[in-house]
Amino acid sequence: MLFLLSPQFLLIKTSTLEKFFRNLTNSISTIYGYINNFEKFKKINDPNKSFNKLHELDSHVVDIKKIVSFNCKNLLKNKKFNSNHYGLKLSKNETFSLLNYHDIGVLETIVKRKKILIRVDGNNEIGLGLLIVMHSQKNMGSNKFKEHLYKLKFFSNQNQLSNIIKQYQPDIIFNDILDTSVKYMKFLKQFTNFIVNFEDLGSGNKHANLVFNPIYYSKKKSNNIFYGSRYAAVRDEFRIWQNDIINKQVKKVLITFGGSDPTNKTQKIIEILRNNNLKNIEFTIILGIGYSHKNL
């Protein structure tokens, strides 16, 4: 068996090369490495699988092939590749190639960059936070994350989380899950030496390298925990924007308590408004998709 790899592709993983050899059999004698270019290459059994039978191989497909492994005996006998072609999906980084001097700088950046894993939780009880409910509670925020090309994994227990972390091997882990426990933080320390938590008042926060609590205030000084609004992670447009016009007379008020409002502050505000004569002010109340309190 023979394996051809262009010297331009320096980021091919050893595990990927092993997959090429492992999948070669007497019946599977030709395997191409391919990328997801569905405009040029649509004849794939299942695009969600990493190993597929290629129903059709045209010149366009050959142009985007990065590696090929094949059975030497069959090639020498038939003077051509076997007609039954198979494809092994390659990651975007693995297909990066050096074509000019500028690519050397890009390659250096890719090699040196840190791998960051971010864990976020969200539901009706703790609030949606970063998550946006798109279709159902099981699919919270998934489409939004995919739009921005994040790799997204769901888990339901610690064993599944452990497998995800082992597979990804992050340099840094971010937690946006509210209060952490000592047990959970010690569990994470098995996989990385640097952990960053947000809005964490739990017992585990002392085991984090950095903790940012922008919505809390404390006079206690700490080397790793930082309090106050100056540490709030907000988009640039909110930091840049300034309201230079202050109306002396209030005419319109907008009220919202996030995606789910788990403590039902909306109801409390409505009761206050009902008990006060504020007929000259127009109030607009926005309810998030995760809001489950029906009786307003």
What do you see in this structure?
With 296 residues, this protein is α/β, with parallel strands linked by helices. It has three domains: 2-95, no CATH class; 116-237, no CATH class; 244-296, no CATH class. It is built from nine helices and twelve strands. The protein has helices at 14-23, 59-64, 72-78, 101-112, 142-147, 158-168, 182-188, 236-240, 265-274, and strands at residues 2-5, 30-34, 51-54, 67-70, 85-89, 116-120, 172-176, 195-198, 210-213, 225-227, 252-256, 282-286. The strands form three sheets. A five-stranded mixed sheet has the order 1-4-2-5-3. The chain has a five-stranded parallel sheet with strand order 6-7-8-9-10, with no helix packed on it. A two-stranded parallel sheet has the order 11-12. The longest helix has 12 residues, at 101-112. Mean pLDDT is 76; it is low at 38-42, 57-64 and 131-138.
Number of domains: 3
Structural class: alpha/beta
Number of strands: 12
Q: Could you name the ranges where pLDDT drops below 50 across 5 or more consecutive residues?
A: 38-42, 57-64, 131-138
In helices, the fraction of residues equals 25-40%
Number of helices: 9
Beta percentage is 15-25%
Radius of gyration: 27 Å
N to C succession of SSEs: EHEEHEHEHEHHEHEEEHEHE
Distance between the termini: 71 Å
